[in-house]
Amino acid sequence: MVEISEVVEEETLQPTTTTPDNNGAESRSTERLSDADEIEAAMSTLTRPSAQLHIQNLITKLRKEGKALQRVAASNAASNASTTQSATAEEKMDQKDESIPQAAAAAPPAAAAVPARTPAKAPLITTNKYQSFPTYYFDAGKYNSPTVSVYVPLENIGSHDKSKISCHFTSGSFDLIVNDWGEGGDKSYRLLNDNLEKDIDTSKSKMVIKPNKILLKLGKVKGEMGSYDSWQQLTAKKNKKASAKKEKENPAAGIMDMMKDMYDEGDDNMKKMIGETMYKQRMGQLNGDMGMGGMGGMGGMDDMMGGMMGGMGGMGL
Fold first, then answer.
1. Which of 84, 89, 197, 273 has the smallest number of CB atoms closer than 10 Å to its CB?
2. pLDDT tens-digit profile of 28-85?
3. Of 244, 254, 241, whose CA–CA distance to 301 is shortest?
4. In this structure, are strands 187-193 and 137-139 parallel, antiparallel, or unpaired?
5. pTM of the predicted model, to two decimals?
């Protein structure tokens, strides 16, 4: 499939345009416009937003090419008509046909002018179908800093209509949207994160638009000790909503998940300490000392300990 500019250049290189070439341009134009209509009709069967966006871009491109070929065909038709008139006038002058007035022989030089050709611009399309930003970066900041930052590079975004750039913050998410971006306004970007590692303070969160990037400042929440939460990454490793629901339904499961995370992420000393504690719990040695005999809801602890103890071979436990 060729770009519009290539079609125009191909036609302008020809010194003269014959009727078959003109018919070829009309045929190619009809073919592209028909393809666009048929693809658009089939677009309703697609469910993925990214697939729909790709198809919409293809439809726009086909229609641009079809309209450009229509202009080429119209220009060629006007040029052919002018050439035919000039040839007829010259032939009649050679035959010295006195019945033809001189004014007619001098006829229409103005009709030979070829209309100016300019590539068609893609129509402005406002779409609710989003695609991901090309890239973005997370900065956790320094220890006890009041915010963390998200950088979203986008060249010349500072000159875009500010009413088409928005970001909505909640305590556990942000939703950044840029509508009608790019040449012709045929792209819309979205960055949604509804599983942040930590909760944020929406009153201290904001969006800043720079010349070539968008900066999101996420306000940290202070912990129990009065210092700001420490972030390691932007997105939580586990689904926080699902984990909270699971812990509410079974508090013992939440404790087991916490101990398992401590074991998986801890160093050798931490793993050894947790292993010894769980071993004593399994052997009943902690019941008298820590009053855990009545925790009937912890029956799943033995199963978890069995799986964890399997990975502790070589530690002498």
1. 84
2. 878 878 887 888 788 778 778 887 788 888 888 878 887 888 788 788 777 777 666 6
3. 254
4. unpaired
5. 0.42
